[in-house]
Sequence to fold (495 residues):
Amino acid sequence: MTKLLTPPMRRSTRPPSRKLSDIARHVVIPEGIVSTGWPAVRETLAELGIGFDDWQAGFAQLALSKTADGQYATSVGGVAASIPRQVGKTYMIGWIVFALCIIHDDLTAVWTAHRASTADETFGGMKSMASGPKMDRHIARIADNGSEQTIEFRNGSRVVFGARERGFGRGFAELDIVVFDEAQILTERAVDDMVPAQNAAKNALTFMIGTPPKPIDPSEIFEDARRAALSGEAPDALYVEFSADRKADPDDREQWAKANPSYPARTNEAAMMRMRRRLTDDSFRREALGVWDEMASRKTAFPPGAWEDCLIENPSDDWPIAAVGLDMNHERTWLSVSLALWTPDGLHLEVAETESFTEAGTDELVKWIQKMARRRTPVVIDAYSPARTFEAPLKEKKCLVRVLSASEFSQACMGLHDAVREGAVTHYGQEQLDASVAGATKKPVGKAGAWAFTRDDLDVDLTQIMSVTCAHFGAVKFGRRPSKEASSGGSVVVC
Fold:
């Protein structure tokens, strides 16, 4: 059976010699372990003058554990670790990878982060590790020329670094080790890019290392790994988590020590205080204390990474409006107005305005919407939205108002889902809209498999995604793409 270890309460003055099971909140061990590759790695590191704390040695022993056939016990499920910042993961994982590259000839390891800045920083750190006097006899070449970041060993092994946001990951014939850094921002597409190459390896080893995801992160891969481990559904995976208590006081040093096995012996007070001052309480709990949001366990309405893949940086001011979408929260305190814009290749979606609503401001809002929509651009509202209060005054202004029935709104939600999945729409990364998209889940509508957007967390503002959904449906269902002559004058078509 898979073992789930949950240690007792710990004090802040723990020495580096504490064991992994005494420090980590969760250690879920794969089945079938009969041996481990750790002794050979430990001896190699000793020759290099590198020592691990006991908890690091425990992690390495489990990560390199093997079954009776000599395969890694995690060759299918992988090694996943939720580790806060400033713990020293690059040092630990980096030296494990280096040792394996020294022990085995012609080994290929890939270290990939989501952001280019993280990949560059990690490469810089490991380049320094590889430049020590005792490593010199093992290193053949370190390439850092802008297009290539590689550490090559004299025995033919190599470690290649790259950023997923740059499209890094394809083109490898065989990958023995893959380290997915920033695993909280790991899409299925990125994993799929490397699966064929790992399948070609004789004994593949995969690490997913990250912090608890933000609500807007495409984190389903990392979430599923954690969920499967903690539910006992991952007999072929190792999962390790360091975290403080869920409702931890972000200034409590005992909670710092509970989350970070390197504090205070190796990660000092100043390093933690720099994060404390730069991050909000919620961000500090996630990134410095390893606390997972309850919201992070829910299923998002869009496929992982699909919304992020539709991001563009510079939408044109000349794209004409295809449709306007409105939504208001049920408390009737704020309104979101979104636009669907015609582009040369399809539709672009953005929130034009989200503002507090009062009855006194209705006339001004109606005039503003009418100015954008004129008479032939559809203004779309869900029949069950409080924004329907704008239906009558907009019609008085001769606007083309379309009110969606329950079945039509369900079609609108599923239509936007498909458009995002297929990359048929764009957006430009508005923070509130991204958060609304990330917080949206699905609820069944009827008994024929239809669904509509909803939320599992009442703190999520759905008005932004709802208004965008209405705008998109209005463009697809009711919109008329203007001729070049009509659209040459700007983003609003005057009819």
